[in-house]
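pasting input
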Amino acid sequence: MKNTIKVERAILDLTQEELAQKIGVSRQTISSIEKNRYVPSTVLALKMSELFNKPVNAFFSLTVDD
Amino acid sequence: METNGIVSLLAISIIGILYLAIKPKKDIRMLAIEDKIKLLPHWFKFIGIGVAVLSLIVSFSLDIWDVNFERYFTVLILILGLLLVALSSEKFEDEMYKQIRTNSIFYAFFAGILAHFVLVFLNFWVGGSIEEHSSLHMTLWMLGIYLGTFNSSKNRLKILNSIED
């Protein structure tokens, strides 16, 4: 699974810390998601979707390994 | 069966029956896999570390001075301390940390079974008794694996994330 959270975050001009606070997780979690080290739950993905005002598959996509 | 065996079996049965009696009844149709893990507040970690360090100090002092104190109790206190550390939440406990916890529990559980097998085989080949305090040492081993895996995974993530930031 790959994602473009970093790009979406830059569009909204948010730091990792700010995004983490808005969706109720730690900064480490945001950092891990951006680096594809952690795949978030559906709830967290939907929270991001609401914040970015985009559907989940606009910033998360499957790779050949999935 | 020995008296001790019957007593343990009875105790386990009574605990099981009590649990079933106290457990809140739920509609079977509402059954779901819920996130039920509730942990102690973060500051319990420091109490746990304090208790564990205290038990180690007592254990070392038993080696230095001839104090009339059962070593068995120092292991019990150490387990209590580590248990408090293991059951206390992170400063910001979220779903990623819960996932790391779940993975660590998986490793600790199977490492515990493996270690027990090794002890049983060692007992069979080399001889001696693994019965004496073995349950305490197994608990300590499993807690150690759990805490070690959890903290190393957490720190590895932190380091890797900070390198690439």
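fyi The mean pLDDT of chain A is 93.
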